[in-house]
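User: Some background: our group keeps a shared notebook of sequences we're curious about, and every so often someone picks one and asks for a predicted structure to add to the entry. Today it's my turn. The entry only has the sequence so far, pasted here. Could you supply the structure so I can complete it?
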Amino acid sequence: MEFALNTAANDAQRDSIRDRAIDFTEVRSIAFTNVRKERSGTSKAKPWSISNFSLSYSGSVANKTNPIVAKDELKTQQGAIDYNFSLPAKYIEPFKKSVTSPLLKFIGELNFNPLPNSFAVRNSLSRKASTRTYRFADPRYSTWEDRKFSWIRDYTLNWDLTRSLKLNFTAKNDATVDEITFNPLRQAYVNPLTDQEVEASQRGRFLRDNLTDFGRTKDYRHNFTASYQLPLRLIPMMDFITVRTQYTASFNWAAGSLKTIDSLGSVITNTQSVSISGEV
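Assistant: Of course. Here's the predicted structure to add to the notebook entry:
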């Protein structure tokens, strides 16, 4: 490097040589997590209460330069909106007072809970925008950009339908928000869904339309579980027996590649199981 600096024609050339020789990385970031309004007073939370919501956000910008890469910029943004609502179970027992016979106790104990115990929804968005420019490449092909925008939605429902019957449902939707990017090899902006060349002015509208459609689902899965304990403890001469049963089912849909989905399609899988256990 000293030889190159000594043989440089002027200060501008020397500065350029130093700049190319430095391996430099700079990262700037900001983040806040689980920002929410705490519930005040003794009043019970309502489904629409603002305290049921929480917000998270993080953003960073990373810049790199080295002898090979003139500019490498990565912008990352992540945001999440969470909703959680829960309430204690309130069992309704319509025959509690009208049935008093010990032999009919299983009827008197009949109950149901009309509302779910808890419900939660999480919306998580993550976007990465990268632009990289190489030093010793043809100017037409020196700059490459990459965009990755994902949208994950999670749902959870817990419901004790009765004291003996409990339900649980979870679902997850993993979607991608497609964006139009510039392809140096084709020297044009390309629609990732159709692989057709488009005008640069369509980028903003294309992104907004995909956000309005909640992205393009790549993977969806849900799981359902129902557990039930037979009310044998309420039947004379059988109260020493405990019998539990559980039913579990799952479903998964995975999208095929955009290049082969018309010919090979997507993949669907599902499972189910039933188990019974007893104790004496």
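Suggested note for the entry: Helices lie at 2-6, 11-21, 105-108, 203-212, 261-264. The mean pLDDT is 87.
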